[in-house]
């Protein structure tokens, strides 16, 4: 993986820069070499790089001050929330400041009348729900990392979760953000009102992976907690049947809160790990959750069961209580951990495909698993075709990581071939950066980079992520960089 | 006035690339009254790019050329029992009664959405991908055809509501939703605005999953309407529960009447006297009543439990006052249908930093300001 | 994660054990949100995942860690909330213990800090030294501000602990009236025996009342947990070996104890792991049978009276009991069965006691203590109960209510004195 060239003039000024940063954010700069190791990656550990320094501001004003300083000193900035990104979005740069927002973790305003909450970017996703659940509300997007990941990171990645099928991704649940631009100015897009005025810049910065600005405040929409929920656990003789069942349910106009499929490998793994009691004879299981008023939930559950049986379901079991529902989810939620017990290392892929391509893609993934000689477990958000193949490997074995990455790239290439996309919720980061040309032409990418230039004319915000090549910003946009010229220096692999 | 009517994307590319002067970009031109007039000699009319090019009912997704009439799309989807989730109305008729209903490209570019947006989201939430030609005359695409997609910037969000100022949209890919099997509209009549809005907010905060919460004060007895959609059994249960609790003494409307009223709320033009000036304001829902009392419209209609207000004024209203009122209450207002010769700000005024950023974003797509210059903001 | 140790390094069984845990960590960060120091300070260096990386680097390079690194490792409470949270099952104690030892060996802390750590390690485990110090400290506490910085902390410690009490002597072996239902060793700790001897007495009464034959064991007076958490491996091992030997002595008659019972989960959690620490079989056999008193009593039908019923008790779950011994449910369940009205505070994190942490890191400890006290008081209890002496003292210093050990309430409910 090639990263932007280190700027020798920045490295030469390291000590002075750090001194200055210490004055801007007293007690919030980490620069000791043996301490920086703790910040050398996010949750994608295949890539590691110690930052020039870590800065941990406590307020939006400090964020602005740091940005202004970096901008005038030509220092790169990588924003970071909780560092749970799976795509290397928060991978530091050796000549850049890693700007950690984790100290800005206050809930500023809970406004139940307007069904929203205003929070600092370092508040955790679950922290928002915790603050409002006693009043019967919650924040709907629920990435599996929700206990740890920050709302700022969610905005930057446009994160999803199991319940996004019904309630949408982060972008569908935001009302406003405050964004610090590279020059330190702060702008607000949206607020507590339903719409933002002018161009939808709120929509644009959501999912922009820290390349356009630093989120310093977020206003999220709160939803009333559904009064009841029921999970169905359905066993299918084939993945195809499970996939078809999902398609049929949706086509009937039933909107389950979640629909998740796990293949047999994944079922075996979680059974060995936490024994949730999944049917072992199945080639695939489907977990569908329905929520809402009880009569309606029961009615929809009967419908789903009918559709499942029509698709040849081997068994169908509904949760009888909340504890039972949790048991059904237990295995799905433990899938990552369970896979982790099979092999020490894992890559979690994240392509999305049209639902109808599911059988074909899964069959092919199975074949590729043999070709690459690496096991893969499939769990996925079936309702919206978002696959999470977990490729298992051992990073200590020579060549394993390389093979795992090639396998991953092959899966994503396949996703794009069948009309899907490279990433459904984890972001491009560094991981999928070089695959972007599979989906986008040079002009498409240049157009996106021109948008970046509108926000970040100096190319200092999280450079080296998302786009396979850097392009210089010229008046009115980005200069096209032509094929074959990759101005990225090699990032040493640890 | 020269009108260019390309039939293909290539022709759009050529038209823009070869343009010597700025162009006014439009679909059928039904919403030309929305926004500042674009002072140009040449119109780029995209209505010729028409037709649904891909529709996969199973996947609930379709692609259509930008100039496809909205009505055609609705027809195609209806055949498979589906619809557009954001319920866009034919609001082009606000400016020319009896005219056509506009195109899908224009609907998206003007971010039109009806009452169901409260539950299902707005145009931005349904636009999965698009193809467009930017001001440099380059064809590009963004987004994809699947719902869950975070590959690259979310330009579809930016496209929705960009009023042709950034690029000429040539093709859109949108989600379709299955039509609700059953719908019930509960109506309360003659409620005071404050009480009506309070009830709507209470329903919004309840778990009854309403798909439309509107209050009509557009003449006659004010009506407060709650729409519930879904499977018949569930809808009936929710309606029963609601009329026992939050919406006591609500009357269940005949199916036709409920549908007609919500259709009117999406189309707008039948609700308001064609002579009036029309504003759209979005303030935090709990401030909706403050807004209406402050600006005193002759007729108004609250959508999304007060989250969106459509406000009609008899005389050319004072834009500065409206913008200020909305801003003070934590929102913003847009002048939708202006009185003759009104030139003030149509879109909510932006602070210096946001305006500068908006100009830079415009320049990223259209550096020479060839496309709809000034339609949203003077120098944008 | 990838690790980088030489085969020679991995010959050290403790380092090998640490390496295994480093491999298991996938750097997901799920643990960070449950870590008290991370949630307070918001710095990866103060969270488990960050510490794991600091430790990995320190152990791999065998280097002298910078003062900065030492500070952040020292801030770890060893509350083990991260262990409960970790989906990958990383055994964090294997890492932090090794790191503390490494620092103790390699790093030069400021002299005052070194002195304090040394003093704590030398005095606390010895009742005969602790008792007079506490007396002195209580007299001296008001003058603490006059002391040189280095001596202020011990003075603070003394002020923080309740005053020394003298317990009634206990018989080495206490027998129930009929045939014993079981034979247990009751571990008598160091600090607890000085500041709250009533706990062990209550435990003996309850056990005997319910048919257990109870033998008190104490080794050389401490199980070694205090030294262990200070990274003082040699001292810890000496204490631990003495305890194992003491237990063995009473088992020489061929009748092994059914359980070794602890009433301080801080000790219990360490004793459970004694086999690994000493790398010996007898230790492992002790560890495997070590149980918290609440865990033991959960399976016993208790003879309950009436007087205590409906008394509201706010239960603070000690981290060592919840995360260390994995006995989150036992104590509140027993109290509920007995008829207490048990409530639990919103704040489920550490109270800041964490062994001698409140002396070494008073700033953080105080914030945790205040938060804990506030959320406990919110529930408007009559008593606050907990299962660990450290927590008990820490919370008692911040509230005006009686703070008692769970066993004292059980004792009361089953016929003993009202605490
Ligand atoms: C076990 C596990 C499960 C996961 N499950 C899911 C899942 O179900 N769904 C899902 O979508 N993701 C999931 N993720 C991925 C990850 O948790 C999300 O991407 C999350 O949103 C990242 O948040 P963070 O605070 O950790 O951000 P980081 O990882 O710190 O940063 C992520 C990106 O956001 C940028 N960023 C962070 N904060 C800001 C800010 N304030 N302003 C501007 N840019 C910022 C960074 O530069 C980086 O590009 C999972 C990760 C793990 C480890
Ligand atoms: S033991 Fe406690 S303080 Fe230490 S890292 Fe784990 S959670 Fe944090
Ligand atoms: S939760 Fe476990 S695997 Fe994840 S970072 Fe923490 S210790 Fe490592």
Number of strands of chain C: 9
Distinct ligand kinds = flavin-adenine dinucleotide, iron/sulfur cluster
* Low-pLDDT stretches of chain C: none
The helix-strand sequence of chain B is EHEEEEHEHHHEEHEEEHEEHEHEHEEHEH
Overall geometry of chain B comes to globular
What is the C-alpha radius of gyration of chain B, as a whole number of Å? 21 Å
Largest chain-chain contact?
Answer: A-B, 94 and 85 residues
Q: Would you give an account of this structure?
A:
Chain A is of the alpha+beta class. Chain B has two domains: 177 residues, Uridine Diphospho-n-acetylenolpyruvylglucosamine Reductase, domain 3, CATH 3.30.465.10; 156 residues, FAD-linked oxidase, cap domain/gating helix (Vanillyl-alcohol Oxidase, Chain A, domain 3), CATH 3.40.462.40. Helices cover 28% and strands 25% of the residues of chain B. Chain B contains twelve helices and 18 strands. The two termini of chain B are 22 Å apart. The mean pLDDT of chain B is 94. Chain C has 419 residues and is an alpha/beta fold. Among the domains of chain C are: 98 residues, Orthogonal Bundle (Fumarate Reductase Iron-sulfur Protein, Chain B, domain 2), CATH 1.10.1060; 102 residues, Rossmann fold (3-Layer(aba) Sandwich). Chain C is built from 23 helices and nine strands. In chain C, the strands form two sheets. Chain C has a five-stranded mixed β-sheet with strand order 1-3-2-4-5, with helices on both faces. A four-stranded parallel β-sheet of chain C has the order 7-6-8-9, with helices on both faces. Chain C starts with 12 loop residues before the first helix and ends in a 6-residue tail after the last helix. Chains in contact: A-B, A-C. Chains A and B meet through strand 10, helix 8, helix 9, helix 11 and helix 17 of A and strand 8, helix 6, strand 10, helix 8 and helix 12 of B. The structure holds flavin-adenine dinucleotide and iron/sulfur cluster (2 copies). One iron/sulfur cluster binds next to helix 2, helix 3 and helix 5 of chain C.
């Amino acid at each position: 993986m090639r990263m932007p060239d280190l700027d020798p003039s920045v490295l030469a000024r390291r000590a002075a820069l750090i001194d200055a940063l210490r004055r801007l954010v007293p007690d919030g700069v980490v620069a000791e070499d043996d301490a920086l190791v703790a910040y050398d990656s996010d949750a994608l550990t295949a890539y590691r790089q110690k930052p020039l320094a870590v800065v941990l501001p406590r307020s939006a004003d400090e964020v602005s001050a740091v940005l202004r300083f970096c901008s005038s000193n030509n220092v790169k900035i990588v924003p970071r929330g909780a560092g749970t990104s799976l795509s290397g979005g928060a991978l530091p740069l050796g000549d850049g400041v890693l700007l950690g927002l984790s100290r800005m973790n206050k809930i500023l305003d809970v406004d139940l009348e307007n069904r929203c909450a205003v929070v600092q970017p370092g508040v955790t996703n679950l922290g928002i729900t915790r603050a409002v659940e006693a009043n019967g509300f919650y924040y709907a997007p629920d990435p599996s990392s929700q206990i740890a990941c920050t709302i700022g990171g969610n905005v930057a990645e446009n994160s999803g979760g199991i319940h996004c099928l019904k309630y949408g991704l982060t972008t569908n649940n935001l009302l406003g953000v405050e964004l610090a631009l590279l020059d330190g100015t702060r702008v607000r897009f949206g607020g507590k009102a339903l719409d933002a005025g002018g161009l939808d810049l709120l929509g644009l910065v959501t999912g922009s992976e820290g390349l356009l600005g630093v989120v310093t405040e977020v206003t999220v929409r709160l939803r009333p907690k559904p009064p009841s929920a029921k999970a169905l656990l359905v066993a299918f003789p084939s993945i195809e049947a499970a996939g078809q069942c999902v398609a049929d349910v949706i086509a009937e106009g039933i909107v389950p809160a979640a629909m998740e499929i796990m293949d047999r490998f994944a079922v075996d793994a979680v059974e060995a790990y936490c024994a949730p009691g999944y049917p072992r004879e199945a080639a695939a299981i489907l977990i569908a959750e329905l929520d809402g008023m009880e009569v309606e939930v029961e009615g929809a559950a009967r419908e789903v069961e009918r559709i499942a049986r029509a698709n040849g379901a081997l068994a169908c079991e509904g949760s009888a209580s909340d504890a039972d529902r949790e048991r059904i989810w237990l295995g799905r939620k433990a899938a990552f951990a369970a896979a982790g017990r099979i092999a020490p290392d894992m890559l979690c892929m994240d392509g999305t495909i049209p639902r109808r391509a599911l059988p074909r893609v899964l069959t092919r993934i199975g074949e590729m698993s043999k070709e690459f000689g690496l096991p893969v477990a499939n769990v996925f958000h079936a309702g919206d075709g978002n696959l999470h193949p977990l490729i298992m490997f051992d990073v200590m074995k020579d060549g394993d990581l390389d093979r795992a990455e090639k396998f991953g790239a092959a899966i994503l290439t396949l996703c794009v071939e069948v009309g899907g996309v490279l990433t459904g919720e984890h972001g491009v980061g560094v991981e999928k950066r070089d695959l972007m040309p599979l989906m986008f032409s040079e002009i498409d990418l240049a157009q996106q980079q021109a948008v970046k230039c509108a926000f970040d004319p100096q190319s200092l915000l999280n450079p080296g992520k998302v786009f396979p090549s850097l392009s210089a910003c010229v008046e009115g946009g980005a200069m096209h960089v032509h094929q074959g010229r990759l101005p990225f220096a090699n990032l040493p692999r640890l | 006035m020269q009108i260019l009517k390309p039939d293909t994307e290539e022709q759009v590319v050529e038209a823009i690339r070869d343009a010597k002067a700025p162009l006014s970009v439009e679909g059928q031109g039904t919403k030309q009254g929305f926004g500042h007039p674009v002072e140009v000699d040449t119109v780029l009319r995209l209505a010729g790019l028409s037709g649904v090019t891909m529709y996969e009912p199973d996947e609930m997704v379709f692609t259509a050329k930008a100039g496809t009439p909205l009505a055609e799309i609705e027809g195609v989807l209806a055949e498979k029992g589906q619809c557009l989730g954001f319920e866009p109305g034919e609001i082009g008729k606000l400016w020319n009664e009896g005219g056509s209903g506009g195109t899908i490209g224009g609907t998206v570019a003007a971010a039109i959405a009806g009452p169901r947006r409260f539950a299902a989201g707005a145009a931005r939430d349904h636009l999965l991908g698009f193809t467009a030609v930017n001001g440099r005359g380059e064809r590009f695409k963004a987004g994809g055809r699947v719902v869950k997609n975070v590959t690259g910037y979310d330009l579809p969000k930016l496209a929705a509501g960009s009023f042709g100022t950034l690029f000429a949209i040539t093709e859109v890919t949108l989600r379709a939703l299955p039509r609700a099997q059953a719908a019930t509209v509960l109506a309360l009549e003659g409620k005071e605005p404050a009480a009506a809005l309070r009830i709507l907010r209470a329903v919004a905060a309840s778990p009854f999953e309403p798909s439309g919460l509107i209050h009509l004060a557009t003449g006659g007895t004010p009506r407060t309407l709650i729409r519930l959609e879904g499977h018949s059994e569930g809808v009936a249960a929710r309606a029963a529960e609601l009329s026992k609790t939050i919406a006591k003494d609500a009357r269940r409307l005949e199916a036709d009447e409920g549908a007609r009223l919500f259709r009117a709320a999406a189309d707008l033009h039948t609700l308001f006297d064609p002579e009036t000036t029309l504003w759209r304001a979005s303030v935090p829902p709990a401030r909706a009543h403050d807004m209406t009392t402050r600006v005193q419209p002759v007729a108004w209609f609250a959508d999304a439990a007060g989250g969106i207000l459509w406000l009609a004024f008899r005389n050319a209203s004072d834009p500065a006052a409206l913008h200020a009122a909305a801003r003070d209450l934590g929102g913003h207002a847009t002048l939708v249908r202006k009185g003759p010769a009104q030139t003030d700000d149509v879109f909510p005024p932006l602070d210096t930093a946001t305006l500068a950023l908006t100009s830079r974003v415009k320049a990223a797509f259209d550096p020479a300001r060839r496309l709809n210059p000034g339609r949203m903001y003077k120098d944008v | 994660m990838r690790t980088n140790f030489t085969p020679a390094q991995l010959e050290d069984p403790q380092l090998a054990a640490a390496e295994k845990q480093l491999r298991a960590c996938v750097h997901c960060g799920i643990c960070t949100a449950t870590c008290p120091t991370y949630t307070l300070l918001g710095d990866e260096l103060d969270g488990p995942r960050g510490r794991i990386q600091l430790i990995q680097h320190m152990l791999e390079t065998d280097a002298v860690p910078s003062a900065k690194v030492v500070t952040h490792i020292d801030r770890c409470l060893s509350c083990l909330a991260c262990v409960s949270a970790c989906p990958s099952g990383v055994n964090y104690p294997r890492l932090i213990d090794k790191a503390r030892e490494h620092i103790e060996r390699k790093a030069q802390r400021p002299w005052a800090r070194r002195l304090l750590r040394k003093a704590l390690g030398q005095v606390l485990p010895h009742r005969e030294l602790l008792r007079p110090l506490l007396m002195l400290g209580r007299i001296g506490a008001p003058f603490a501000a006059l002391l040189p910085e280095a001596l202020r902390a011990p003075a603070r410690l003394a002020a923080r602990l309740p005053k020394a009490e003298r317990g009634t002597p206990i018989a080495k072996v206490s027998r129930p009236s009929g045939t014993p239902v079981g034979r247990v060793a009751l571990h008598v700790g160091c600090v607890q025996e000085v500041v709250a001897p009533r706990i062990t007495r209550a435990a003996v009464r309850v056990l005997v009342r319910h048919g257990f034959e109870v033998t008190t064991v104490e080794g050389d007076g401490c199980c070694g947990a205090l030294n262990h958490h200070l990274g003082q491996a040699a001292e810890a091992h000496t204490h631990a070996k003495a305890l194992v030997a003491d237990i063995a002595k009473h088992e020489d008659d061929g009748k092994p104890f059914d359980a070794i019972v602890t009433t301080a989960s801080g000790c219990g959690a360490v004793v459970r792991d004694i086999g690994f620490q000493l790398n010996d079989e007898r230790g492992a056999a002790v560890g495997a049978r070590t149980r918290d008193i609440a865990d033991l009593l959960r399976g016993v039908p208790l003879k309950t009276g009436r007087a205590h019923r409906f008394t509201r008790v706010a239960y603070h779950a000690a981290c060592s009991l919840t995360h260390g011994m994995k006995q989150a449910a036992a104590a509140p369940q027993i109290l509920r069965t007995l008829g207490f009205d048990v409530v639990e505070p919103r704040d489920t994190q550490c109270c800041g006691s964490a062994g001698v942490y409140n002396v070494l890191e008073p700033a953080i400890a105080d914030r945790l203590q205040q938060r804990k006290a506030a959320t406990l008081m919110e529930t408007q209890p009559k008593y606050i109960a907990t299962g660990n002496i450290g927590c008990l003292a820490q919370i008692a210093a911040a509230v005006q209510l009686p703070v008692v050990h769970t066993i004292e309430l059980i004792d009361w409910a089953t016929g003993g004195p009202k605490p």
